[in-house]
Write a structure and sequence with these properties.
This protein is of the alpha/beta class and about 375 residues long. The protein has 15 helices and 5 strands. The protein has 3 domains: about 160 residues, Rossmann fold (3-Layer(aba) Sandwich); about 55 residues; about 140 residues, no CATH class. It has a 5-stranded parallel sheet with strand order 2-3-4-1-5, with helices on both faces.
Length: about 375
Amino acid sequence: MTSTALAPFPWGEVWGQDAAVETLRQAAEDPAALSHAWLITGPPGSGRSTLAYAFAAALISDSPDDEKTMRQVLAGTHPDLTALRTDKVIITIAEARSLVERSYFAPSVGRYRVIVVEDADRMVERTSNVLLKALEEPPEQTVWVLCAPSEADLLPTIRSRVRPLRLREPDVADVARLITLRTGLDDATAEQSARHAQRHIGMAQRLATDDGARRRRDETLRAVLGVRGVSTAVEVAGRIIQAATDDAKALTAERDAAERAALLRTVGVAEGQAVPPALRSQISALEDDQKKRATRSLRDGIDRVLTDLQSLYRDVVMLQYGRDGGLINLELRDELDALAAAWPVERSILVLDAIAATRESLERNVSPLLAVESLLVTISSGRTP
């Protein structure tokens, strides 16, 4: 497979998406090929956001040689780029209205004004409706770029107003080569990380470079395999939630502190000085956003665990059907063979259905601990609670 890692700036970081890169490069260079709104879809880790910002950089810059402008865009500091990177559970109506308002501004210095919406699938119907008119009739020099896992994650009214661009899912070997190139790690570690991450580039890099993350994944899967009843299900569920909580806190604590310090500097409050009453509402608003982000981070952590469990029982089903090629958890082959022999395939499928149901429960704000406990009881008993 040819690699866009060798493509000219700013496309070099878009890995393994040659056809999509070529489509967007032509659109950036030829107004006749440019649509006013795009929807970039692909599985997690396929490079949706990376491609969106490379496209924005190419659109805003004066020419393919205008590297200074493109670097500003990629850094998120160019005035003609408006980007919504949400770490919260949903994109709010207020955020959508702000995007629409910005979309009607003429470009200040670039060729186009570009609105990038990451995780556009986090919009509920009312929020999506705010964008409709702006997507249907944007100013001539405004381009919208939405990112989502699939077209089905957005309303039909949104899909009808955008040009879709579907990214390919990279192979394990593709991701492993990229990890080796980026980190210099040995081929075996890169291959294992790419396989365990199920070709998610960002997660593969984290697994490859974080011994703790690799260890926690292995311990979690082995602990779930060891669940034998309600008492151990409750114990293991508690450990999973605690590990996800600790991970979420570690990922957000430093960022939260930096945001608070930056806000205090902006409003002229020295470190350690009491916050004046007139400014407390701003601090409260920031803290509220940070709490929402922490909730999203915890859910994402639990979802990663569910993804790992899904890979485990998917491997079991494959073995039960006599297929041993393409297994994800090769390091647990003995345990997988034992489980495949001990269970009927119907039980394995029941477990996979329970994992999907747990995901849906978490999206409905069910207690994460109760949801995971219920899942582990199903796994250990072969029956839904």
